[in-house]
Amino acid sequence: MLTKITMNNFKSFKNQTTVDLTKTNYTVLPKNVSENGVLKGCMFVGANASGKSNIILSVKLLLDLLFSERSINSGMFKCMFGTGYSYSLVYDFLIDTKKVKYAIEVDTRKVGITEKLYVEDQLLLDRIGVSAKSYIAEKAGNFYDESDVGKDTLFLRTLYFNTKFASNKILVKWMDYLKNSVYINMFDQVIQSYGKTDLSLAQYLDRDGCNEINDFFTEYNFEQKVEYAHSAEGTNYRIIAGDDEKEKSIFFRRKDVDVPIPFVEESMGNQNLLRLLPAFLYVLKKGGMLLIDEFSSGFHNQLESLMVRYFMQKSKNAQMIFVSHSTNLLSNSILRPDQEYTVEFHGNEGSSIHRISSDQPRSAQNVEKMYVSGVFGGIPLYHEVADEN
């Protein structure tokens, strides 16, 4: 599981910034902490354009570079108002009680990449530019040069796809954890999975049917179900998906309403919920990171609360890292203070984060009210609209 992310001169984060996912001394919501002491996720809240999405992007970038054949665009990720020509990212994980640390630094002037991989503080990969040495398979190390090391791609990716890290079980489990991760942008309706399983809604329903989703709806009293079929019948009419009998559509069935509602006619919130659920349920079962940007897009506050609680309760080896504007989630009955971060933007100094637990709010205090009143920062400073005389 992910324990830390450290960004330096990355996007809006000019200064070195660390997001910590290890638990603190809080005792509230023990179910939000995995057995290894790592938090099952965290939330970022703050004004628009404060840099929240860039934190999600810092994790997504690793997944993209490893599994999506993406090259590093040298100027795309460096902080535009930062000093120097390099940006860096350091990722810390805990895999089966073993610490895995992976660090990358990109020099945008020389277009040079540095990579270092450690397991339990033992250096296993050391790459500078187009030269690298790996100690993964051989203790004495294997040397690689420009014929093996691409100047704008991760050598970790090359090593993994060439060897699958067969000689190192911890690295195999680490890569599996990463591959089981999913990125979702609720506003743009983007769902990106990094393994072989397609988690788009239609593919999920074709493969797994509606039972798992409908069981979720029943358990939590949604008073609706979904059908995935060529046709659906209601009072006095029938809806057909198309001329081809193999063609299917999604229909909602609401309690006490004998009318099938086509997916495209449903509310944005219900559409987004249905798009989210395949990835949501998959990551919970497989273990991995669920990265969600704009989580509050179209959702009622209570629905967001339910989804977060469900994830924290059901997760054993999965994490939910998300951005939301729903301040009601800042509650000691939903998330622990060490799972909550505020984000602010400070002009040329860039973005900064503040972990709410660092102010040591008591379990009985109303964290949402404290946030709205400005105690933790990360709120917009708009002028109020004046009352009319």
UniProtKB/TrEMBL annotation:
- Give the top-rank taxon of the lineage listed in the UniProt record for this protein: Bacteria
Q: Which residues form the ATPase AAA-type core domain?
A: 242-331
Which terms does the record give in the GO molecular function aspect?
ATP binding; ATP hydrolysis activity
Per its record, how is this protein called by name? Answer: ATPase
